Amino acid sequence: MSFLFRCEICHEVLTADAQMLGTHLPCPACDVPLWLPDTRTDETAADSSSPPVDREAREPDIRFGNHDKAGDAEMDMTPMVDVTFLLLIFFMVTAAFTMQKSFELPTPKDDTPSQQARSMQDIEDDPSFVVVRIDEFNTFHVLASSWDEEKEAPSEQELIVKLREARQSGRGGIVPSSLLVMAHGDALHEKVVTAIDAGAEVGMDDVKLTTFEGDE
C-alpha cells in the first residue's frame, strides 16, 4: 500500500510504500533526506479512544438563499391608513368655515318713469321705512319714522339692535319692512354691505340705496 506526501524543501509530491513509514527517505528531486513518521499507530489509538460522532449532529445545517424573502417584502399599511384618517379629521376640525352672504337688489319694473320721485322727507315720514345713514367716518345712524332723532350705531351688532328697535316701534301698527341705506361719498363699500346684511338679519329685504355728499 503506497501513500502520497510532499517534500518540505522543494514541495514535490512523492509516493512511498507503507513499509517505509518511520524511516528516512531521500527526496528524488532535491536529495534532501525526509523523515516519514508513522502516524498509523496514533490514528488507530485516536479512533479507538474517541466515541463515534454522528456527522449530521456535528455539522450544522447550511441554508442557502433568503427563504423568508416573500414575508419580509410585504408591508403593513394599517399604520399609514390610521395616520391619514387622523390628518383628515384634524384638517376638518381646524378648517375655517365662512358663510357668504348675498343679497338681491331690486330692478326697475319698467323703463318709463311712471311715478314721481319721492323726497327724503317723504321716506323718513313713511312708517314702512327705516333709514340707515353712513357718514364719512363710516359710522351708522338709524332713523325710524316714530323717532324724534336718529340713533348712532358704532358697530354692526349695535346696528342690528337699533334696526330691531325700529321695527318694534312701528307707527300706526305698521312694522317697517323697507330699508333705505344712505351712504356718504367717502364711506367704504364694506359698510354699505354691512348695513344691507343687518337689514336682512332683522327681516328687511326691500332695500334702496342712495348716496350723498357733505352733511345730510
Report on this structure:
The protein is an alpha/beta fold and 216 residues long. Helices cover 31% and strands 21% of the residues. Among the domains are: 2-48, no CATH class; 122-212, 2-Layer Sandwich (Nucleotidyltransferase, domain 5), CATH 3.30.420. Helix 6 (156-168) crosses helix 7 (189-201). It is rod-shaped, with a radius of gyration of 56 Å. It starts with a strand and ends with a strand. The model has no long low-confidence stretch (mean pLDDT 76).
Task: Give me the side-by-side strand order of the main sheet.
Answer: 7-6-5-8-9
- What is the chains' assembly state? single chain
Largest sheet: 5 strands, mixed
**Number of H- or I-type helical stretches:** 7
The CATH homologous superfamily of the domain at 122-212 is termed ATPase, nucleotide binding domain
**Any idea what the radius of gyration is?**
56 Å
Please state roughly what percent of the residues sit in beta strands, choosing from under 5%, 5-15%, 15-25%, 25-35%, 35-45% or over 45%.
15-25%
Classify the secondary structure makeup into a structural class: alpha/beta
Low-confidence parts, pLDDT < 50 over ≥5 residues?
none
CATH architecture of the domain at 122-212: 2-Layer Sandwich
Total E-strand runs:
9
CATH class of the domain at 122-212: Alpha Beta
